[in-house]
Amino acid sequence: MGTHFHGTASERQALDVYIKLSRAAESTGQRINDHLHEWHLTTSQFGVLEALYHLGPMPVGQVGEKILRSSANMTLVIDNLVRRGLVERARRADDRRSIEISLTAEGRSLIAEILPAHVAGVVEAFGILSPDEQTALAGLCRKLGRANQAEMSRKNGA
User: Fold this and answer.
1) Among 93-97, 105-109, 115-119, whose mean pLDDT is lowest?
2) Total structural domains in the chain?
3) E-assigned strands of 49-111?
4) Residue 46: which CATH number?
5) Residue 41 CB: number of other CB atoms within 10 A?
6) CB count, 10 Å around CB of 114?
7) Using an 8 Å Cβ cutoff, are 103 and 52 in contact?
């Protein structure tokens, strides 16, 4: 096992799985996103561009939910993308309190250029697993994520 914790067998097993999951996610994410520095993009900036590219314009909070980032982090990420001319902010006509983010023509062009190589990198990184293993891993991750999200929502009274 990957932990040196001297607890119960179930504690050691859970910690071992957590360590392996964290390390696998970190190393896989680094491998897949390494090319983004060539485009002077952070992983969060790429996530915003990709979400807007596939889902269209949306409010800042919704973009943050899609890429799992806090609203405080999203402000900085979007400020930097606006400065580069890749996205723009606009008040929604139906709700002036809400600010919608959309791709500019330059942002759409950039993400369209980057995306094929990014997808190829994801396919390559997960190529170590068979299709059945990828399906099993996806199912387990979804189960774990949904259960923990539900527990967090329950605890926070949402």
Assistant:
1) 93-97
2) 1
3) 58-59, 87-91, 99-103
4) 1.10.10.10
5) 22
6) 19
7) yes
